[in-house]
Amino acid sequence: MDEPPAGEPPHRSPLVIALLASVFAVATCGLVYELLASTIASYLLGDSVTQFSTVIGTYLFAMGMGSYASRWVTKDELALFVRVELLIALLGGCSAAALFIAFPFVESFRILLYALVFAIGAFVGLEIPLLMRILRGRYSFSDTVSNVLTFDYVGALAASLLFPLVLVPMIGLVRTGFLFGLMNVGVAMLLLWVLPDRRAMRGDKIASVLIAALLLAGMIYSEKLQRWSENAGYGENVIYAVSTPYQRLAITRGGGDLRLYLNGNLQFSSRDEYRYHEALVHPAMGRVANPRHILILGGGDGLAAREILRHPGVRDVTLVDLDPEMTRIFGRSEMLTRLNHGSLNDPRVHVINADAFGWVRAARRQYDVIIVDFPDPTDFAIGKLYTDSFYRALAHLVAPGGMVSVQSTSPLVAPGAFWTVATTMEAAGFTTRSYHAYVPSFGEWGYTLAALGPIPQHARIIAGNRFVTAAEEPNLFDFPPDMARRPVAVNRLDNQILVRLFAREWSVYEN
């Protein structure tokens, strides 16, 4: 079965050409499955460094086990390779959809995640040794190794470039899995087609057609599959969802309540978001004599901007948010612009889509009030925005007499993480005053007020607030003993203790 047709140079036979093309394809598919599992794990479980490290480590270990197991394959290498391709197509192609669907229902999700990663990795580990054995009679040993490794590394490069630049932003995670599963099936079909005895392996041919049909159907209905899993997970109707290069963004509606989720984490509920945003904005705005120039970091939903624009003296608002899809949907959707009062379309608001860490370091203008509304520090990419390095850069943007307000997670659930923000800002040269507010969707939530000088004791709170009134505002600064300040370390760029502390404290609460 493995020999080329008589009279044809071995290295030019259709089978050999197909095998070399397969090396490129399987390398690309294998790395894409690895990146898919790592990305989905970071979306669903947080802490991207931990998820990428553990998933990649498990995957590489499994590849080693698969390569080791190949020593017991002594015959029919080509037939086994085709079957391995079909198994990888089925497991890898369905992996993204399976993980998203299982997450709301499987309590031991990590066991499922690593079992799936191990299975895919073990089969991928079988591929290259089998290919090298199949090619050994058609090239010299040195040429075989050179050709296989060359195509393998080029395929890995293609996958590493395609994944962040094309696949995630344009195709999405679930559809990408099905697409590359089809590529694995295509490799198997190609080899089945060029086999010298095409009557052989009829069962494999039928299996390849059935798997291809399954993956094609999954690709066509991938968005519905993900919506279904999100509806089940959130317990609400998902009315909008999209995977961007930065996050999974989902908006749900139920009983008149709109909710925004980023990577599965609740960002606001329309029923009580006014409590969160009034507390975030007005204590800082009310402590500046004439706040005219405002900077918002994060806050792409426009809700903090809505509160800021209620102050009559505001001349301009610069809003820096990483994800253009976030600011786009909250600037165009009628139901969302009703919620933020069209703040992102106000001529005084200038939206910049950029990484706040780099933008702040490059900015030169100063602002009277800076509102920092980043997601919680669930991973190191976000955690860098809570470091002393970031706060030192931020200090250069604070105008004389200016104020900064930072959302700082829950002082009840994660008191260590909460007080780390104040400690880190103080290490960067700020004076701080911490406060908290009860938001039903989140529970007790905390904020850090900061300035480069003394912080005024009292604020001038504008009329019309539903929660933070002039009478209520002083009470926000009182902490009961279970939320009182405690000694914590500074969150630095090279240690990111805040991310680990946040994960540990929230895991205790969630379990």
Strand and helix map with partners:
Blueprint: H1 14-45, H2 48-69, H3 77-102, H4 109-135, H5 141-171, H6 173-194, H7 202-220, H8 222-234, E1 237-243, E2 248-254, E3 257-262, E4 265-269, H9 273-285, E5 293-298, H10 303-308, E6 316-321, H11 324-332, H12 334-339, E7 349-353, H13 356-362, E8 367-373, H14 380-383, H15 388-395, E9 398-407, H16 415-427, E10 431-439, E11 443-451, H17 497-510
Parallel strand pairs: 5-6, 5-8, 6-7, 8-9
Antiparallel strand pairs: 1-2, 2-3, 3-4, 9-11, 10-11
Helix pairs in contact: 1-2, 1-3, 1-4, 1-5, 1-6, 2-4, 3-4, 3-6, 3-7, 3-8, 4-5, 6-7, 16-17
Describe this structure in words.
- It is a single chain.
- With 511 residues, the chain is α/β, with parallel strands linked by helices.
- It has 3 domains: 10-229, Up-down Bundle (Growth Hormone, Chain: A), CATH 1.20.1250; 236-267, no CATH class; 270-510, Rossmann fold (3-Layer(aba) Sandwich).
- Helices cover 53% and strands 15% of the residues.
- It is built from 17 helices and 11 strands.
- Strands 7-6-5-8-9-11-10 form a 7-stranded mixed sheet, with helices on both faces.
- The longest helix has 32 residues, at 14-45.
- It is elongated, with a radius of gyration of 27 Å.
- Mean pLDDT is 88; it is low at 1-9.
**Uncertain stretches of 5 or more adjacent residues:** 1-9
Highest-level CATH class of the largest domain: Alpha Beta
Instruction: Output the strand order for the largest sheet.
Output: 7-6-5-8-9-11-10
What would you call the shape?
A: elongated
